[in-house]
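User: Show me a protein chain along with its predicted structure.
Assistant: Here is one chain, sequence first, then structure tokens.
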Amino acid sequence: MHETMTLYGRRRMTTISWDITQEDLQCCGVTDFNDWHERIPESCCMEEFAGRKRPCQELQTELTIFQQGCYHAVTKELFRNGSILGGAGLVLAFVMIPGIVLAYYILTSL
């Protein structure tokens, strides 16, 4: 079991982080739900309707529990959004460089 997983349920922010990640990305554990051993959190359970969760702790099937691991889900999200972040960084650099050059010339002319 991964170190942060052992802190699940004992540290509030760790628990909240795992729950948000697993629910938003529809994943469970690092590689898969088996990482949790017997302590599968409710955030790994698929929704039935109106926010009610399926009982995945008792019955661990592909119809009740998220099968994909969170490592794969996070990596996929980073690659998907990486081009947007890279493009924004380039635009910011092209805006800042002329400002830096202008500031340098203003300071040297004083």
